[in-house]
Amino acid sequence: MTTTTNAPEYVGLPEKTATAKARAGRRPVRPGRVALYALLVSAALSALFPILWMISGSMQSLPELLKGDALLPAVPQWQNFTTAWVKGNLGVYMTNSVIYTLCAVAGILLVSSLAGYALARLDFKGKGVFTALILAVMIIPAPAMFLAQYKVLLALDLANTRQGYIFILITTGIPISTLIMRSFFASQPKDLEEAAALDGASALGTFFRIMLPLAKPGLAAVAVIQAFAVWNEYLMALVIFNDNALMPVQRGLTSFVSAETPQPQVLLAATLISIVPVVVFYLFAQRQIVDGISAGAIK
User: Fold this and answer.
1) In whole angstroms, what is the distance from residue 152 CA to residue 146 CA?
2) Which tens digits make up the pLDDT trace of 265-274?
3) How many CB atoms are closer than 10 A to CB 267?
């Protein structure tokens, strides 16, 4: 009696055939791809080197830093950070910048979301002209508006005050933020608003309860962009403030630059401290940045 066994087709295949299939599954290494990766790695290292140099220099002594032949500090000078924070009043400047950033970003989000929704959904006379004016304001360089802004603050008795500086920061960030929010609201279907209207929801109720939650990626993108802009603002603070106790952190860093008593190691330590909140914020918000841009910021 003969027994027939149904063996799988791949049994008995020559080893050369299996090896050929394995090689066929591998993607060939292209010289162009290798060159691209090498270029990207070089660009990343060139971007990281100044940061690594700043970290190293912030922990060196002044003679060691001026000598410039040590990549790492021989003995870390941790007192540089204490000097920057206490003697340089960096804590005061950092607190000011946190206050300015939180208040300005909150105001920009509120105004730009309402204005963006109006431009995307409402039909009113002069809508095109209003949009063109927003674009025109964005073209004007910021320093060119300093004199007019300062005169407005003088008329409102807000010069050399926190409120006046925050007011200027909000007005500066509204144009681009409004256009970003407009693109988000324009990309949303109108069926949601029509359904809300049938349920008796008011226009503001529809905006705050339905449309605004849908625009979270846009809000996150605007918040990140404006938070960086406000934190790094420097020139307008010089125009508005004459009291050092009100200056933001970027202005405070210049207090470590002096021809009579140079302190570059303390300046590097202060700079390192000043970028920590920005780096932490970016690490938590980088996903929102990508989602915000891909969801409609460039539509």
Assistant:
1) 10
2) 888 888 899 9
3) 22
* Amino acid 297: pLDDT: 43
- Determine the Cα–Cα distance for residues 167 and 152; give it in Å rounded to an integer: 11
The alpha-carbon radius of gyration of the chain (Å, integer) is 29
Structural domains counted in the chain: 2
Q: In terms of domains, do 64 and 196 share one?
A: no
Q: Which of 193, 220, 199 is nearest to 122 (CA)?
A: 193
**Structural domain boundaries, residue 285:** 90-297
State the Cα angle at 56 between 247 and 79, rounded to 5°: 60
pLDDT in tens, 209-235: 888 888 888 888 898 889 989 999 988
Residue 66 Cα to chain centre, angstroms: 33
CA-wise closest residue to 181 among 210, 206, 216, 205? 216
User: What's the pLDDT tens digit per position in 26-49?
Assistant: 666 677 788 888 898 988 888 888
Q: Give me the helix-helix angle, 264-292 and 216-231, nearest 10°.
A: 160
Same domain for 157 and 285, yes or no, is: yes
Q: Which tokens sit at 69?
A: 């032949």
Round to whole Å and give the CA distance between 203 and 122. 10
The phi and psi torsions of 237 (rounded to 5 degrees) equal -65, -35
- Best CA proximity match to 230, nearest among 152, 174, 160: 174
| Backbone torsion region of residue 4, taken as left when φ is above 0, otherwise alpha when ψ lies between -120 and 50, otherwise beta | beta
